[in-house]
Amino acid sequence: MKKLFEINRSANVVAFSFALGIFIGFSPYIGFHTVLAIAVAYVFNFPIYPLILGAYITNPLTLIFIYAFCYKVGLWITDLEVTISINWSNLTWQALFTNIKEILIPFFVGTHVVGIISSIIVYIVSYLLLKKFRGW
Fold this sequence. Notes:
elongated
């Protein structure tokens, strides 16, 4: 966290980078968080450290808990009744894709909503902390 305060950019840019990294970290694109953070840093000329730090909010220790919470939020928002029925003795690709589709809709909605709300909170908190401790 100390390195976050030493970045020689405005508090607004650092806080926005950190918040954008948090949004990327909550995104459902598992396995692409680091690539997305690096790409955003270079395309938009944002500091890479806050983006990577935010993107790593989902790591092997937190991944299951964060995505389970996001899935529950997605179920609550979409108000879907998800019933998974897998006939293991006669498993077909169509049945597999039907079940995945029922799960993915609440998951995608939940991860994006929780990501947006978390990003807003992180932006406000990090901006205020940067302003306070840097004196800018």
